[in-house]
Amino acid sequence: MTRFPIEEFSSLKTPFYFYDLRLLERTVKEIRRTARDPRFKVHYAIKANANPGILRTIQAAGFGVDCVSGWEIEAAIEAGFRGDRIVFAGVGKSDPEIRSALEADIECFNVESEPELRVISEIAAEMGKTARVAIRVNPNIDAHTHAYITTGLAENKFGINLEQLDSIIGLAKSLPAIDLKGLHFHIGSQITETEPFVMLCETINRLQDEYEQKGVKFSLINVGGGLGIDYAHPERHPIPDFEAYFTTFHNHLRLRPDQELHFELGRSVVAQCGSLITRVLYIKEGTSKRFAIVDAGMSDLIRPALYSAHHKIENISNPNGELHHYDVVGPICESSDRFGESETLPEVKRGDLLALRSAGAYGEIMASRYNCRPFPHSYFSEN
């Protein structure tokens, strides 16, 4: 259970992110325990949270890292990740980013288009290097999640459609300075059912069988990430069901004996260890609503405004007070700057501290300076 040190919080400037490093350490230990197949290699998706304190904890656990920009590669290396444990995805890799990745001798580029593959080959040849690549494939699987975080459908901007795969694999094998290592998939985020992952395994099995008949073998398969968390009950389920997740791939994916299976987990690693702490500025009585106006806004946590996402809200200053209903809203001049409607909370007063839970992923990393607001600070607890 995450413990909020209210006495310490009272002197801190809000809003800020609070990270429970003990929970993060428990989470990475559980991943290591459940991903026990020696062919399973876990890469942390740094886009979820690149806070240096978070990265150091994950790097110490021995994970690799999944990056989607050259700046993320720089952050990973600064945190101690080795270049040969870095994979680089993204539909719009610039020439300087490709060069820096080659200079770092990264483990693999996840290639998302034919033009990108040609550019990587040209730059690698100019540098006298060989680029290891995996082709990102769109398996056209509906992950039953939010449209903005569904990535595996044919109409998404990511990856290669199945009907184009033959030609791009042939191109990869013909280009100089390219070493084709495998296939990469990522069907979406916040997936809470096993069915989409089973369907992904079945697609990969079929593709592997087809390409082996053509004499093409892959040394690695990358299934991305996507495992969801319980936003409604962060204390009841502080650690996702990694056992079921990894067992699904172990039971349904027919890996070859000499293949590695790569995972790119982000949200499921860090979301539950983080909370956004905000202070109540005003209680405003409307005609039919009561508003709790807080000092955190969509510039600090954009998920509710961007995805209509909901984070559990707790009054940590008065956890046992009489229950009332509040719309919890921020100070930014946008109607979408709200964290919850008709939230049932113990009585909220000016100055109370509220915790927006499960904010360790896509919270601090997506913060902005909209309205010229400062970035939120971060604090850690290891007790």
TrEMBL record:
Catalytic residues (positions): 333
Modified residues (N6-(pyridoxal phosphate)lysine): 47
Record-level Gene Ontology MF annotations: diaminopimelate decarboxylase activity; pyridoxal phosphate binding
EC number: 4.1.1.20
Job description of the protein: Specifically catalyzes the decarboxylation of meso-diaminopimelate (meso-DAP) to L-lysine.
Protein family per UniProt: Belongs to the Orn/Lys/Arg decarboxylase class-II family. LysA subfamily.
Self-association and partners: Homodimer.
Official protein name in the record: Diaminopimelate decarboxylase
